[in-house]
Give the backbone structure.
Amino acid sequence: MCVSDEILKRVADTYRRLRNTARFLLGNLAGFDPKRDRVANDQLPLLDRWAMRQAQQLMQLARRVYGPDADGEIDFGPDTYVYSSLVQELMRLCTADLGAAYLDMTKDRLYTMPESSLGRRSAQTAMLAILEVWVRALAPITSFTAEEVWAEMPQRAHDSVFFATWKEIAPEFAGLALSTGEDLLIKQLTEMRIAVLKRAEELRNAGQLGGSLQAEVDLFVPPLWLTNLQAAAAELRFFFITSEVRLAPLAMAPAEAQSASADGQEFKFLVTATAHRKCIRCWQHRAEVGAHPEHPEICSRCVGNIEGEGETRVYF
């Protein structure tokens, strides 16, 4: 076995990432009662179903890795007892799927929508399901941390995580299959977002842009993409975490537009600094900030979330 300061540092960084992910999930589950607040899978927005599907894939891997002795239903296979593959997949989930995407994208729903709104409760439903997988997958590897997390989870079925089984949570992931169009939408948007974030960082380093919510994005896409993307157009800004996202055909791209590819096809885009005022509640920059006489510092969406039943999200 090799040991060095560098190896120990990498192990510590891995552990810190895993622990911080659990801490974020637990923090946002405060006040969530699964029996009262859980949202049915067929009512979850696309982003929550996607995140739960990613956790479901981790659960399937963990069951294979720990084998029939721990599961009782899974046969021996090439993954059995290959614990490194499980740790790598856990890190990929925490870093790429959650840390770099899902957790940031859901902050708007968690922090700006009414406490008992469908959008907020659906995010909490997905987060609890993800944590249920996380704590079971890590229990044999980081037993004390898993027990600490388990002790803080809402409505635990057992006193210890080591009495918990995979079969108990399997029904929570039923009916999560994404359609071909939904899979394609997530894939295209994820690849486009990478290019947009890279450009936004360049503008930020050049002093032309502040945070991502100070940005507006124009996407110029192939005609075949427009139909799929147009359905989610009103919610794209929440996926990109910008104040605006506009769609247009690729042929309308101006000369100064940046070029990139997603799903093997070219698209173009512009990232520009917004000229609108900042909503002090959701931090998005919107044209209607200042238009409401009773709430001159917040946007119309936040007014609806404060005084009404709250907005509806279908995608993000």
In short: The first helix runs from residue 5 to 27. Residues 243 and 284 are 5 Å apart (CA to CA).
